[in-house]
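Listing S7. Sequence submitted for prediction.
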Amino acid sequence: MKPEFLDENFLDFEWINVPEVKFIDTQITEKTKALIIIKDSDLTSNAKILLSKILQSIGIDLANEAALVLLGADDRLQTSQFTHKKESLLCLVMGVDKSQMSMQIEYKINQAFTLSKIKYLFTYDLKSLENSVEYKKELWAALKAL
């Protein structure tokens, strides 16, 4: 709906709803080695245990060295919010689509790539990892290659 103050002196713009953007700058500290981005609906108590084990396998403590971002279905994350915070950071994206991260890139599941000094690894959501030995093996191979 166009606001009433618009008249013939204003350009006729299309009005759209912009999705909420999560701001995460405060979560990244000097101790942060990994940024974990997951869907908020995926974080169950079992999934949190699995996530902790995944990070431990590469020497990262979930409680002290990782920042966790939970995205709702309609949330969007601007990667520029954290690319300037650290010289080196692992960004583990679990079950979140690149469009939710405002990224227009092509990637393959479990194949890491570096962009603006941030190492990204897109992988399966935690629930899928919990239920599939094959998915766990794929992720482990990708993590070892880091």
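Caption to Listing S7: primary sequence and predicted structure tokens for the chain studied. Residues 45-56 form the longest helix (12 residues). The mean pLDDT is 83.
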